[in-house]
Amino acid sequence: MSNDADACVPKALTDFVFDLYDSVTLSHIAEEQRRLYNAEFRDLSQKYFANTPWPSPQTIATECNGDPLFLALYRELTHRHWHAVSRINIRDRMEGWQVYRELFEEILQEEPNFYITPEWAFDILNEFVYQFQGFCQFRTALYNNAIKHGIIKEGESFGSMNSSNTTAPQNIVENINLLSSADAWEVEQVFSYLHRLVKIGTMQGQNRPAYQYLGLFSSVALSRLECLLGDYSASLKALAPISDAFVVKKDDGEMTAVEVIQSVFLARLSLAYHAGISFMMLRRYKDASRTWGGICAYMQRGFKVSYYFESRKGGPVYLITQWRPCVIAQHP
Amino acid sequence: MLNTPDALLTNGIICFDTKTGQLRKLPNSDQFNKQYDRMIALLAIVTHICPPAGIVEESILRTIREKHGSILSKIDSGEDGYEDLFLCPKFVTASYDNVYKVQSKQFSHEMTPQQSCRKLRSYLKLYTSIAVSKLAKFNDMEEDEFLPLLVSYKHRMLQLEAPENQAFSDGSLKSALDIHYYLIEDTVHVDEAEKQRRFEKYFVGQITQNTEILSEAVAIDTTI
Fold first, then answer.
1. A286/B56 CB distance under 8 A
2. Residues B127-178: pLDDT tens digits?
3. Nearest to B155 by CA among B167, B147, B163
């Protein structure tokens, strides 16, 4: 997916990579990293890579001293962007697995000078489960297609493909061959990474915020994954680390695990939605009502407050609907 | 007001950046509305089968009635099922099967008796004691067909409930019913659970609503 042909990387880009690297490994200033990760990355993406991939990690390696963890982070960030702006094919999906495997292997080596913001940690884990879900849907669709074209008999696996069938559409045969050639997105492995991240992030004595964030958001991701796979009790059990008893120490004070989740609104939304589904499917209607009712009331209050606002340059008048909860979430 | 970051709700949420003076779209904010609508639909289901008093805010119940009131009354009259409101995630599996259908089917299966249960509840609320045969007749059922329903409703609504500060733990088994009933020989006796009157919440809700309407009215330009 990466374009290496573009050897001449714009200066704005190398500066961005250098600054981001600095915020991850050295300065650890949340506000600065948030600006780079949100605004700057989006602006650069819009300007240079609206529908093309970002440069490959090798191209920018000199900006970060070839740091393997940062390169893996960069690869995930740019792969996620590519996933969002393009029509992805099976190779992109399978590369996705490599991207996450590389990143998690690096992270699990416990790098002492590593910092990412809660939002960033959540985005990585959320996308990980999202891509796993997409891969499963793709595989099911491919399987049904293969049955329709008589390449596989119902109830058999991809391995028993009848390759002598020459009338079968070539793209289906190719995709099946590709899927069988590599063990991408195996569910045990997906679980294993999430469990290991939870363990390392929530263990006694863990004092690096980045690992704690990754551990907590892995619980949210795990809960969603269990829910998607239909194990609703496990989905709720996965949320055990998210309690007031768990504390993250930051430069400017402390945050409980609940507050960390609440600081990233999408995480809170994902948690409430999936936990609610799990409650409902377990016939726990009261707890489902409480979970959904709470967050909907919170969002509804956000929708309502509206007032007029005039731009400072005397420009047009906008009707602003204030979204207090989210604004707070973005500016904790 | 300009000192606080402000947001504009359109297709997603636009945030006013106080540093640069620019309006920016919050990343992924288009998902907020979608998830909100899904949860309101799901809430319509759970609040319909389980009395929501004291759990869900009145303003949310109002939203549910406005958005899904017509489908809920169709469900009550038996013309429709809960399926259209079941906005679940896209379930997956590690094998090749399509589990999405399996889960939806399971849900429908679970919901079917709930429709007769709701009807039963509405009759139970009218009486303090009533003969089983009479109650069965109201529900258009034979007595021996009706008794299992009477018992299963109680069983069905006995559910785990998480304690207050541990939102996702198992908690303990409690009845989610707001009525209590028991059988002595051929008569059903009904104690309505003590009505928890929530005047203060009602008043605060009405006051808030009133303030909103007032501020909207004040903002209307009345100059000719």
1. no
2. 888 998 898 998 888 888 888 888 889 888 888 988 877 778 888 888 888 8
3. B147
Cβ separation B96–A266 shorter than 8 A: no
Q: Is B177 inside any structural domain?
A: yes
A291 with B167: Cβ contact below 8 A: yes
**With an 8 Å Cβ cutoff, is B97 touching chain A?**
yes
Name which of A122, A42, A128 is nearest A81 in CA terms. A42
Is B47 a domain residue? no
Q: Does residue B200 sit within a domain?
A: no
Is residue B76 domain-resident?
Answer: no
Q: Where do the structural domains in chain A lie, given as residue ranges?
A: 1-87, 119-302
- The count of structural domains within chain B is 1
Determine whether the interchain pair B96/A143 forms a contact, defined as Cβ–Cβ distance below 8 Å: yes
How distant is the Cα of A229 from the closest Cα of chain B, in angstroms? 6
Q: What is the CATH number of the domain that holds B177?
A: 1.10.10
Look up the pTM and report it. Answer: 0.84
Q: How far apart are CA A157 and CA A143, in angstroms?
A: 9
* Residue B156 sits at the chain A interface (C-beta within 8 Å): yes
From the list A68, A81, A76, the residue with the least C-alpha distance to A96 is A76
Q: Which ipTM was obtained for this model? A: 0.84
Across the interface, which of A230, A286, A288 has its CB nearest the CB of B103? A230
The Cα A93–Cα A101 span in angstroms is 13
